Amino acid sequence: MNANPHAEKCDELLQLLCHRHRRQILRFLDTQPTNTATVDELVEHVDSQSGETSLSTEMHHVHLPKLADSGLIEWDSRSETVRYYPEPLCQDMLRTLRSHNAQSTSV
Fold first, then answer.
1. pTM of the model
2. What start and end residues bound the annotated signal peptide (predicted)?
3. Of 14, 24, 59, 66, whose CB neighbour count within 10 A is largest?
4. Least confident of 16-20, 42-46, 48-52, 96-100
5. Residue 75 backbone dihedrals phi, psi, to 5 degrees
């Protein structure tokens, strides 16, 4: 039985987007003129959004590798830059999740 490639891609994206820090990373990169930022800028943004501090280790060892393995970002560890390659299905999921979060906080 052949698997549905669209369903597999949905599953992969849902696994990636299940963590709020990865959603914050992609949203931030999407707002940048060239979809590019330094790792320091990402850490600062996620820290400010989450109220947590010192996420650098988690960013380097968990979130950026997962996003890079998926092909959504390119991470150059030498220059410490990250570039996002927007994908329509991912963009749709991020918009839906943001809309859902906005609705649940206004209730």
1. 0.85
2. none
3. 59
4. 48-52
5. -120, 115
